[in-house]
Design goal:
258 residues; alpha+beta; NADH Oxidase; 2 domains; 9 helices; 42% helix
């Protein structure tokens, strides 16, 4: 019989949390009114709005709770002007009251595996054996074993596919590009939290994927394991800031029921 893992074993740590009442209609108002605003007004957005949004970003669900992200809050006029230029001088970047650079990080997973165990121990809670095994054995094998520049990735790929012939098997991340995708997926969830949080506080955002990543990387002094994936402009929408009604294709193109 195969050894149980954190995925298959029911773990009861004794922790209990009371559910809270939520209001779908209020949530839907936030979702429906969130728009990509192309021009912001001159109205100042209080720092507390950004602080709330960043706090909400850090609560986003993420892979293995390893939180592979970093957020740069660009506040100074000089830095905002420079960053707006690297965003191809988009009106949304030039008129935003605040800019947030969202970075996916592929070099922190090992440190965060250890930190997870440390924080659990600090609460006085007994760390279940399957949880400790996950962060000390399974996660390092899943996110590691690639070597510098992925030189060991072909061996890892071969191993996974041989084992996968006879059993359900993890397939990635195998290559460094897979690890980047892994970090970007979690960071994207945090980006959505930022935008919904700002809208819930009465302000607006513009998510920008169009920017000179090389220059942004240099501006923020990022390493090769740091991947700037989005710049979010924050402000109050100008009357002319939304270019048209929201358009989505027929949902039948995207939703399948099996």
């Amino acid at each position: 019989m195969s050894e149980e893992t954190v995925f298959t074993k029911k773990v009861d740590t004794g922790y209990r949390e009371t559910d809270v009442e939520v209001n779908y209609n209020e949530f839907k108002k936030v979702v429906d009114s969130r728009r990509s605003v192309r021009v912001f007004s001159d109205e100042l957005v209080a720092d507390s709005v950004i602080e709330n949004a960043l706090d909400d970003a850090l609560k986003a669900p993420n892979s293995s709770n390893l939180q592979p992200w970093q957020f740069f809050w660009i506040k100074s006029p000089e830095a905002k002007k420079e960053l707006a230029k690297y965003c191809f001088s988009q009106n949304g970047a030039k008129t935003a009251n605040h800019l947030i650079v969202c970075v996916a990080k592929t070099g922190t997973w090992k440190e965060h595996c250890a930190l997870t165990i440390e924080q659990m121990e600090a609460t006085g809670m007994e760390v279940p054996a399957v949880v400790r095994s996950y962060y000390t054995k399974l996660a390092p094998s899943a996110y590691g074993m690639m070597g510098p520049f992925g030189i060991f990735s072909p061996i890892k790929w071969l191993l996974y596919n041989i084992v996968g012939i006879t059993k359900v098997m993890i397939r990635e991340p195998v290559w460094p590009s897979d690890l980047k995708t892994w970090a970007v997926k979690s960071t994207a969830l945090a980006c959505e939290n930022i935008m919904l949080s700002v809208r819930a506080q009465g302000y607006d955002t513009l998510p920008m994927e169009g920017f000179d990543a090389k220059r942004v990387r240099k501006m923020l002094k990022l390493s090769c394991t740091d991947h700037p994936m989005m710049v979010i402009g924050v402000g109050q929408r100008a009357p002319e800031g939304i270019y048209g009604p929201q358009m989505r294709f027929d949902k039948a193109r995207f939703i399948s029921k099996l």
